[in-house]
Amino acid sequence: MAERSFAREVETLRAGEGETFRGEGILAVAKALLQSGVAYVGGYQGAPISHLMDVFSDAQGILSELGVHFEQSASEAAAAAMLAASVNYPLRGAVTWKSTVGTNVASDALANIASGGVKGGALVIVGEDYGEGSSIMQERSHAFAMKSQIWLLDPRPNLQSIVDMVEHGFALSEASHTPVMLELRIRACHLHGRFAAKDNRPSPLSLREAMENPSRDAARIVLPPMNFDHEREKIDQRWPAAVDYVRRHRLNEVFAPASDRYGDLGVIVQGGMYNTLMRALERLDLADGYGEAEIPIYVLNVAYPLIDDELAAFCAGKRAVLVVEEGQPEFIEQALHAILRRAGLPAVVMGKGPLPRAGEYTGQVLKDGVEEFLVAHAGRNLAPRQPPPPLTTADVPARPPGFCTGCPERPVFTAMKLVEKELGPFHVSCDIGCHLFSILPPFNIGNTTMGYGLGWSGAAAFNVPDSQRRTISVMGDGGFWHNGLTSGVGGAVFNRSDSVLIIVDNGYSAATGGQDILSSRPGNVSRSTEHAIADAVRGVGVDWVRTVRTYDIGLMRKTLREALTTPLKGPKVIVAQAECMLNRQRREKPLFTAAVKAGKRVVRQRFGVDDDLCTGDHSCIRLSGCPSLTVKPNPNPLREDPVAHVNNDCVGCGVCGEVAHAAVLCPSFYRADILYNPTRWDQSWARMRRGVIRALQRWASARRMARAA
Known about the structure:
By secondary structure, the chain is α/β, with parallel strands linked by helices. It is built from 23 helices and 24 strands.
């Protein structure tokens, strides 16, 4: 159950010649693939391209009509390996994943296919997750493209340019027998616009026809001596063919102003940064709202390979050019220096200097950089920029990411904190996923994280037989099926590791948008689910396996304590189960709302804190961290400490009460049942309760008056 359904939007993918397609960037990419005659699509979800996988999951009917095979790959490596179908057959294939972390996983298959080359078009769509909104290490896909000599497209962020680059990506791949990478930043994935649609077309050669007429070319396989020929082929044949295609089809764009006021200057910009650059120029009164700039601009829709003669022609007669290249190292800027020196051109190249070496190039960053460039080389009399005063923590309070309200993973770490109080601190090896938020306050649990599904492998060095302590590793169900079963669990069994693994089984690949996985609940009509993690773990040789409901903090603490203290040697696995609360709410809220509207009797649970009982020490908050559990001013005028308070975001998971019970905190939490469409019996009971409560209140008041007298 993905976080967003495209069941209605996918019908727009049927638009044909003469129609105008309107929609989101990710839908435009899907439409471009179908227009290009793609034969197969695979990938692994991850921001900002998770929705591309969701679109194809919801478009099974259209794909079947066109004979397109769609695969939700087990990992990015599995997705990249799908491109093997394009090695021997003229089949167009596309795969997708998240930025450098996905390319890291896929690099083995990518390097092989880039070495041997392809016959059919092979397109890798990468969600370039760089900048302030990113959740990963700050690296760029550009380095991978250069390493393996995969051509890198970076289209201008408008739907027509993106669609054109998808179509050209396949043709460029076929012309140069090289896989092509197309990177899309998060804004490009989610911008809205329109483009002229074309008819969807099936692959000229179907997958079935290719299977029934197998073909092979041993020269495409990376083995000596063919691998040595591959390198020469890349340089002598594929690279020149790619440059020729880019040049002939003018994939890079030059925007020349009508005025020559700044004709001796120029800006060279990555295609994906074009919109931000234009906004910066507009704020400097160097461009209007329609994209007409007063300074020449060369747009690199193809970031690699660079077209030397185009760059030299653009820079000829210019005193200085500014290179807008986000991130580091500055590959384009360094290459431009070499190109201009070889061509004997004197233009000064600026990039890093006016623009920062690292960090996202926001509108303000580009405005400041372009302004500094113009002051230095145009003699423009601009007022010197006053640096803003440094921000302090008082200006911008820290807001680290955290678990959602009602998240079933939070109680796992509450139990770990309670066990830590009993047994002392222990080394915790973390993994990629929502559970990684445990590293941050209020839990502050976790020492390292090494990659998706590598939680248990990250603690492998601490497999010390004579130690009196055991390590704890954490892994999500998504990471388990992605990589963890083989590298983590299998490795621990094989090496007889005496350590503990907690597998957080929330039913989905939750961190990437709630997509179904092997162990998801039933209901996916096109995929096989309901394969228990505990069965898979036992299947590779783990004997000590426990399955615990995460919200039962007492049992979770007991089970974890047992795993850490049992004299039994060998790997120990705790499967902590409870459904992702976001997906649960997406499923239950529409049903709840419909039932209330239909007049049915419905009960919703809420939790609260009794102001009179709360002591104000807030241990419950430190052990829970639920966003709905906060503080409010103490209503008692004789007490100053604020009291705990459960706000209206509460989803009734009950963790706050479980924490108070398991940690033996104050008994201030209560549960309230909110009743919708009560029956006459419910109303009678309510009147009876109110009557009893009023009678008791009058009796208590009378006793106080008597004592006072």
